[in-house]
Design goal:
Radius of gyration: 25 Å
Distance between the termini: 94 Å
Strand content: under 5%
Order of helices and strands: HHHHHHHHHHH
Length: about 210
């Protein structure tokens, strides 16, 4: 009887620890955990910097549906971090992330098509992706939409629209958008957002 009790207790304890191991293993395979581990290798935090290992971990996270991981992979191939620059591979990863609604990846796709990185310049496609990112209040995309309308890149130039986009970017703290407004505002008859007045007036050379 005593032996059976001990044996049953051992089984219970063993089962408990097996469950803990399974839980830990499942957690280690979540996209967030894989990205966190990849970041450690990317930045060399608590381990040797190893871009290849970071890519491996980001790929695992992406295979589990992470748009952030796909964006990181796109960035690494676009900039040549740990790999040779490959704009077509970067486009593949950015596209996966952008289609899942990742604003930074949508901006990156817009940039790729605006500048012809591995593809033909296509302002319409570029504007499509910038707009998606801008609709999520991604400051860089808002500013870039302002530039598109100020320069007439694939659209009829419209300084009023350009100012609107720049103001939205500036409201999000984009300092370049604020500087661009200094150039744009003297050429349009449009009231500037009062919340920006102080910071705009602080930029040298601007006179209302």
């Amino acid at each position: 009887m005593k032996a059976n009790i001990i044996r049953n207790a051992v089984y219970i304890v063993a089962g408990y620890f097996a469950a803990l191991i399974l839980i830990a293993s499942a957690h280690a395979q979540t996209p967030e955990a894989l990205i966190a581990e990849g970041d450690k290798h990317y930045y060399g935090q608590g381990t040797l910097q190893d871009y290849r290992k970071a890519i491996e971990l980001y790929q695992q996270a992406e295979s589990l549906g992470s748009p952030a991981a796909a964006h990181y992979l796109g960035y690494m191939y676009q900039k040549g971090v740990g790999v040779s620059i490959d704009h077509k591979v970067a486009l593949k990863w950015f596209s996966k992330a952008a289609e899942r609604g990742h604003a930074a990846a949508q901006y990156s796709l817009g940039y790729i098509y605006e500048n012809g990185l591995g593809v033909r310049i296509d302002y319409a496609v570029s504007r499509h992706w910038y707009t998606k990112a801008a609709n999520q209040d991604f400051a860089l995309a808002l500013r870039q939409m302002g530039i598109i309308y100020s320069r007439g890149l694939g659209v009829t130039p419209d300084l009023n629209v350009a100012v609107e986009y720049h103001q939205r970017a500036a409201n999000l703290g984009d300092s370049v958008a604020k500087r661009n407004l200094v150039t744009l505002l003297p050429h349009v008859r449009k009231a500037i957002d009062p919340t920006l007045t102080a910071s705009i007036n602080g930029i040298a050379g601007f006179n209302r």
